[in-house]
Amino acid sequence: MLSTDTKKTIIFRNYLILMGTLAMLITGLGGLFENPDRLGQKDRLENYGRFVSGVVVNQANKIRR
């Protein structure tokens, strides 16, 4: 019974470490994309996303025919 509690504690600890790491990573990436120096890059990424979605729709229409 003692080993089960220890395993649960280790799993819980690893889960907390993972969630904390992900929270810091997401916060850092959000700040990176909201940086005023990177607004031009953000616009390029958005335009590229529109282009890719247009290509995907075009290919789906060709496959459907």
Structure description:
With 65 residues, this protein is an all-alpha fold. The chain has two domains: 1-34; 38-65. It is 89% helix and 0% strand. The protein has helices at 2-33, 39-64. The longest helix is centred in the N-terminal third of the chain and has 32 residues, at 2-33. The protein is flat and about 60 Å long.
Please bin the fraction of helical residues: over 70%
Order of helices and strands: HH
Distance between the termini: 63 Å
Number of helices: 2
Low-confidence stretches: none
Structure summary:
The protein is mainly alpha-helical and 65 residues long. It is built from two helices and no strands.
Topology:
Elements: H1 2-33, H2 39-64
Keywords:
mainly alpha; flat; 65 residues; 2 domains
